[in-house]
Amino acid sequence: RSVILVHNCCVNQQDIDLIMNHFTAPVWWCLCPGSNRYISRLVPPVELLRRNGLNICLGTDSLASNTALSLLGEMQHLGKIPLAELLTWAAPNGARALGFSELGEVAAGKRPGLAVLSGLDYDSMTLTPASCIARIL
Fold first, then answer.
1. Three-class DSSP labels, the chain
2. Is the pTM here over 0.70, yes or no?
3. Rounded distance between C-alpha atoms, residue 24 and residue 3, angstroms
4. Which residues share a beta bridge with 6?
5. 15-35 residue pLDDT tens
C-alpha cells in the first residue's frame, strides 16, 4: 500500500518533513496543475518537491475541476521540467503510485500502453504548445 497526496499546492518544507517522517508506506506526491489552475490558480511547489527527491506522479483530478483528462496537458502546464522526468512522473510513477506493477514501462513481463509523442522542441527536449500524443497500443 502507498499514500497518495493530491494537489500539494500549499506544501512547505515543514509539511514535507512531517509527512515523510510519519508514514512508513511509500508516499506519492500527485500533481494536478490543470485542475489547480481551474480551481484556485495555485501552483504546487514543484522545485521544492524535486529538491527533496520525492516520488512525484501526475493526475488530472476530474472533469469537475479540469477542462480535459490529459496527462500531456498536465505535463505542458508544468513548464520546463525535463521531458524524461515528466514522462517518468506520468507513466511508471503513476502506475507505481496506484499499485499497477505491470504497467508504466516497456520491460520484460510488463504490459505497457504505447503512445507517440510529437511536436517537441527537439533541441531542448521539452514539450511545446503544439505537442500532441497518439496512443498506438
1. CCEEEECCCCCCHHHHHHHHHHCCCCEEEEECHHHHHHHCCCCCCHHHHHHCCCEEEECCCCCCCCCCCCHHHHHHHCCCCCHHHHHHHHCHHHHHHCCCCCCCCCCCCCCCCCEEEECCECCCCECCCCCEEEECC
2. yes
3. 9
4. 30
5. 999 999 999 999 999 999 999
